[in-house]
Fold these 3 entries.
Entry 1:
Amino acid sequence: MVPKKLERITNLQQQGLHKLALLNMERCPITATCLDSLSNLVALLFLNLSRSNITDDGCDKFSKLKSLKVLNLGFNDMSDAVLSHLKGEIS
């Protein structure tokens, strides 16, 4: 059974949010499944995931966010290896 909060995040695309440009999820617990769903929001320009307990798991999904201009990953538990998923994505 999927917890209600996680279910809402994983259904973002189905909720008609495909044009969403700004998303602030600071201090919201984010899992690899959540990152997979967030990566479908291809119109995102600004994404704040600071203080969200993110680890390296699922961070490869950031490379799908081609329109992203600002990504805040501050104060999470990620290694420098995550930067490899962002290499070449920064304009």
Entry 2:
Amino acid sequence: MRYTACTKAEIIWLVEQSHLPVGRNLEKLGIPRATFERWVKQVVALVEHDSHARLKNLTPADVYHGEGEAILAERERIKKHTFTHQRLQHHATTA
């Protein structure tokens, strides 16, 4: 099964925050340790290479807590409102 970068980051966070040993968590999740270690390297590289831009400027905590979609929707609403306001203001000044 293929996982997105966000899902990999969530799994890493969950495994590392758990009171259980890493190996036991990986066994329960059915993820080989070598795969997990590769993911950790990928996430570290992603963070070092502007992870916010790749994750649509969401923090891993936003994604973990399930707030990512709501944040993106609110940003889109604000962007549309701003564009509409700018367009109306432009029409008012040119009329």
Entry 3:
Amino acid sequence: MVPDVRSIPRPPAYILASSHYRYWSADKLYNHQTAPNPQPLMGILSIRSSRKFYRNAGLDLDSGDHRVISSMVLEAADLDTAPDQVFYFISAAPRFGKLLLKTESSWNELSAGQNFTQEQVEQNRLWYHHRASNTGFRGHDSFRFILSDVDSESLTQSFLISIRTVDRG
């Protein structure tokens, strides 16, 4: 018969400042942590938790306008990944405007299936342009994306764009 075994997580007090911690196991008959010459049922595991930061504040603009999407409103940071390796994969483009990426010589419209990086956001190269044909439009637009680095990806996220009607008379 297999003894009743339980895992006891014991993170140290500095766990919030550390990216690793260990745990040990014990059963009702034998405490593997304090016994002489312990023979643990489980080895020590280190768990790596990269510290991530994420900001998705959305954007406000007037109908027919364009505005930069800066790192003040859209930012993803991972301490072990460079900004040029943090990707936003677009799963749905805006419906009432265009998502534009500035290159050295031109503007490229981004659509579903394309991507941009956090580095490009930090360089103020990502813009939203509300279509002039929708002048007078009041409401919301958005684009959806999956955030990814070399090791993992997020669930689908939405970036909300609020559009105000402006009387230009």
